Amino acid sequence: MFTGLVEAVGEVVDRQTTAGGCQLVVASTLGRELSPGDSLAVNGVCLTVVRTDERGIYADVGPETDRVTTLGRLAPGSLVNLERPLGADGRFGGHFVQGHVDALGRVEAWSDEADFRWLTVSFPSHLAPFIIPKGSIAVDGISLTVAHLHVDRFDVQIVPFTLAHTNVSRMVVGDRVNIECDMVGKYVVRAAELAGLSLTGVPSGEVRH
């Protein structure tokens, strides 16, 4: 379980194609605190650390993860948001983030307001039931609050600290981003579907990922 509070920004230093996926090597100071088998959220995607060395953190991206996230498109030089799982004795400051991406969104617009910036992200229609105004959402692993919700997009306000301590300042219009909706909302929608209601446009009893 993660919180969406980014601990560090790493840099992809290598990407090697594997059977159906790839292996990423990410340089970060977090490497010295990780061991093989540990979990690590990379741009909001929960990966397993294969090994670490002086080059960085090695993690495999499988075919399914490659298909439903942006990780397979990362090239050397890309900056990524990193977060270790929340410890049992840790302080909870963001929201419940599983590291399981629901869909890819698209950066649609940026605008400025004083020292803050507004980010607009579009999303596929099947995510609509899971997103609410003032609710939480993870964008590339960053816990954000939905300030304005439209039919197929939402606006979030980015504070200066987040701009300085995540990769969000590198996002440009047209970029694809990993979206994870709030876990509680997904359970509510699933319970409604099991009760015979279809809130997602998917027939009751049929789950789509």
How would you describe this structure in keywords?
single chain; 209 residues; mainly beta; Elongation Factor Tu (Ef-tu), domain 3; seven-stranded antiparallel beta sheet; 3 helices; 13 strands; globular; disordered C terminus
Tell me about this structure.
The protein has 209 residues and is mostly beta strands. The chain folds into two domains: 76 residues, Beta Barrel (Elongation Factor Tu (Ef-tu), domain 3), CATH 2.40.30; 92 residues, Elongation Factor Tu (Ef-tu), domain 3. It contains three helices and 13 strands. The strands form two sheets. The chain has a seven-stranded antiparallel β-sheet with strand order 10-9-13-7-8-12-11. Strands 1-2-5-4-3-6 form a six-stranded antiparallel β-barrel. A hairpin with a 2-residue loop joins strand 9 and strand 10. It is globular. It starts with 7 loop residues before the first strand and ends in a 15-residue tail after the last helix. The relative contact order is 0.18. The C terminus is likely disordered.
Care to give the gist of this entry?
Helix content is 11%, strand content 37%. The protein is mostly beta strands and 209 residues long. It has 2 domains: 8-83, Elongation Factor Tu (Ef-tu), domain 3, CATH 2.40.30.20; 103-194, Elongation Factor Tu (Ef-tu), domain 3, CATH 2.40.30.20.
